[in-house]
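During the no-cost extension, the postdoctoral fellow (Dr. R.K.) reprocessed legacy sequence entries with the updated structure-token encoder. One reprocessed record is reproduced below for audit purposes.
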Amino acid sequence: MMAKKAQEAAQTAWTRPALSAREIEVLTSWIASDSKTQVANQLYMSIGTLNTHITRIRGKYAAVGRSANTKAALVARALQDGLIELEDL
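Re-encoded structure tokens follow.
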């Protein structure tokens, strides 16, 4: 019982990184897509720029102590932060 309360307290104390509107757009588009090429074309950017955005997003999550080194981890962070809903997946 005590461990569950501690876990709930930790979840509500998460610090959300300061993602820009464009970073949120990149993140949510990438989560909804199976291909970086598709996202890059949709957002009118190169794959290199897309990768730079993703790297910066991961860095911002790491800076607040919530690392997200995989796409699955970024999906979890986006869900936790209310950027996407389960229905979006």
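The domain at 20-88 is CATH 1.10.10 (Arc Repressor Mutant, subunit A). The two ends are 32 Å apart (CA to CA). The remaining legacy entries will be reprocessed before the final report is submitted.
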